[in-house]
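Handoff note, outgoing to incoming analyst
You'll be picking up this chain. Sequence as last confirmed:
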Amino acid sequence: MDLFLWITLGLIIIGFLILFSMKRSMESKLAFIIANMDSEESSRKTKSIVWWIVSTIAWGIVSIILIVWSFHNHFG
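Most recent structure output, in case you need it:
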């Protein structure tokens, strides 16, 4: 396997590890937001959850592009 494929697999695996490690803290932030809707801290935690979702989507898009590009380079 070439280096590009290893980089792609590494990005995907590391991304999953980070995603699952942060999942529990995001769940607790969401529970805090639901319990304390009018709090100033709830607004800050909402922003962090939104940024987590945006970064997860970006990671997913980059992973899909790298997988397609990798198959194109390997089989094309």
